[in-house]
Amino acid sequence: MDASLIIKDIQAKKFASLYFLHGEETYYIDLLSDALQKNALEEHERDFNQTILYGKDADALALQSELKSYPMMAERRLVILKEAQDFKQIDVLEAYAEAPSPTTIFVVCYKHKTFDARKKLLKHFAKNGLIFKSDKIRDYQLPDWIAKYVRGLGMQINGKATMLLAEFLGADLGRIANEIEKLRIVLGANTAITEQHIEQHIGISKDYNIFELVNAIAQKQADKAFKIVQYFEYNPKAGELVVIVPALFKLFSQLMRVHFIPNKSREAIASTVGVHPFVAGELLTNRQNYDPKKIAAIIALLHEYDLKSKGVGNSQMNSAELLKEMVFQILYA
């Protein structure tokens, strides 16, 4: 079930007795857990009827006692086991999940990995409650996720601003949501977020960032690339070599794949490479700048500079000097 549908039920006071929230993406686990905390009990009921435990410190007997206790001056109790991946005795919950108390809402937050679906515990939760698996979002899905999230707030965002957030923040949905919320507070609803807003309020330069450097190299715009490299020299945190090398490796790996895909339509590239259609269009255009032989040499070069950035085979050059040399060799070697 989609997280938004679960939240609608929670807000409508339609609760399951059991919730097992698990998976690599922690954002939705926190979102659902917070929704239950906000809606399961009235504020005056929480002191006596809400218990939050953490897996590393939880005691199995104490947890079972909390689950079986009756609500006090309320319709229900809420028990949340956070960081359940650290709860070593999680299998002891099988018996409770098989016959849960009708007056207790029990929420298990199992983060950073997927729980084994073959275990009886999960089967009991599925039979008597609700299971939500929170999968890690793929890089190519990020722009659409950001645009959808922004629309959900009653705002709009242009393509470049979307790509800036996706490239700079990565697949950290919680951080993305926090930064967009800051923009909503500052700019107000019904605003179209632009790259200028991103630069002013989040601190990502719209012209001098890793995303723009990778684009400049892909398009063989040497002047633009070296201007960005120079900016990074004076603002090291804006573009660190250990982040730039993987970004370029990703670009050239994708370009290599595009060269050997028989169907060169934008839709086929997007599906096969696993990128947004906009990015697929850029790859189709930029592949003309680098033939497969050149790409293979660049990938070997990136490996070399990745090692140098970590001190292997490099005793004199700093990160800025290494970056300049690497970009020069990519563009001119």
The total domain count is 3
Structural class: alpha/beta
**Euclidean distance between termini CA atoms:** 52 Å
The succession of helices and strands, N to C, reads HEHHEHEHEHEHEHHEHHHHHHHH
Rg value:
25 Å
CATH classification class of the largest domain: Alpha Beta
Q: Helical amount among residues, as a percent range? A: 55-70%
The counted number of beta strands is 7
Helices, by number, come to: 17
How would you sum up the global shape? elongated
Mean pLDDT: 93
Could you state the CATH homologous superfamily of the largest domain? Answer: P-loop containing nucleotide triphosphate hydrolases
| CATH fold description of the largest domain | Rossmann fold
- The CATH architecture category of the largest domain equals 3-Layer(aba) Sandwich
Strand content: 5-15%
Q: Main β-sheet, in a few words?
A: 5 strands, parallel
* Model regions low in confidence, pLDDT < 50 over at least 5 residues: none
